[in-house]
Amino acid sequence: xxxxxxxxxxxxxxxxxxxxxxxxxxxxxxxxxxxxxxxxxxxxxxxxxxxxxxxxxxxxxxxxxxxxxxxxxxxxxxxxxxxxxxxxxxxxxxxxxxxxxxxxxxxxxxxxxxxxxxxxxxxxxxxxxxxxxxxxxxxxxxxxxxxxxxxxxxxxxxxxxxxxxxxxxxxxxxxxxxxxxxxxxxxxxxxxxxxxxxxxxxxxxxxxxxxxxxxxxxxxxxxxxxxxxxxxxxxxxxxxxxxxxxxxxxxxxxxxxxxxxxxxxxxxxxxxxxxxxxxxxxxxxxxxxxxxxxxxxxxxxxxxxxxxxxxxxxxxxxxxxxxxxxxxxxxxxxxxxxxxxxxxxxxxxxxxxxxxxxxxxxxxxxxxxxxxxxxxxxxxxxxxxx
Length: 386
Hints:
The protein has a domain at 33-51 and 279-386: 7 Propeller (Methylamine Dehydrogenase, Chain H). It is built from one helix and 35 strands. The chain has one helix spanning 8-14, and strands spanning 4-6, 41-48, 59-60, 63-64, 68-72, 77-82, 88-93, 98-105, 108-113, 117-122, 128-133, 143-144, 148-152, 157-162, 168-173, 179-181, 188-190, 193-197, 202-207, 213-218, 239-241, 244-248, 252-258, 264-270, 275-278, 282-286, 292-296, 302-306, 318-320, 323-327, 332-337, 343-348, 359-361, 364-368, 373-379. Strand 10 (117-122) and strand 11 (128-133) form a beta hairpin. The longest helix has 7 residues, at 8-14. The chain is globular, with a radius of gyration of 20 Å.
């Protein structure tokens, strides 16, 4: 039976919907209140790459090689921007409904589409190398490894394709629940392995060349009377840092797992649709209701929680210097102090939703909104008072 997908925002709202004997009431997103801005933020440049993704909750997110920023839009536009100035290096129209990516690596860009295709472009020129059918919609940025592109499709499969010609090399299949969240976790290539999360609440590591499992484990167990109660999707960003894998599921747990063995290092009960970010000492999680929470990387113990962005459809957090940064449904970008979670800066990048966790490009931070706007920020340097 075909699985039905639900919007992440609807699932999150359901968690705070009154469900007693009376009429259900829906809580609106928290309104932003004035903050004391103690960090000076500078907008470096703004660019636009197409449009057409508003309200679709696509997996389009910027990627970088450190020199350029690559992005795509649902109306088929793909572009490379100079990371320092935002100037367009090249721009192409693909005539495809781009829905995920780009994934960057090995000098190529990989996009997934709403009509079930995988597109490979040359990162230097934007020239199409090939496109192939993958059998289902793609809502997670493909991962590019050595000779293999790993693609997570909405039918519950992880597939590996040859970078050279698009030939399918292997397929990993997981069972699909009847109801799943719209949105997929991007796979991550880590050396000779690819790590992926699935709609049935499982994560796994697989050999990049063959798709053979190295390990698999559940981080959520379906429970409850309704299909909504039993949602356990891995629907947000995972991270691989060194030899550690960090993941979080909806109505599940945050877990730290050894990449080589699958040994669980620690767990912490949590529920997330956006995912998490990691730095040297902490794991930062955006919960399903928009709280930003910091956990100790060593054991998962909670260190602080910021609850001011409740139900604002907050992205996964990105550690950035002495801050952790998230975007929200109204295009605002929020900088939080990594030590205690207080707000230290806020800027509105666009009037539409920030689609994914901000990315770091050198000393800059780059965000993309649903209407195709790309904005780069930096932290203003403090003057030397000595």
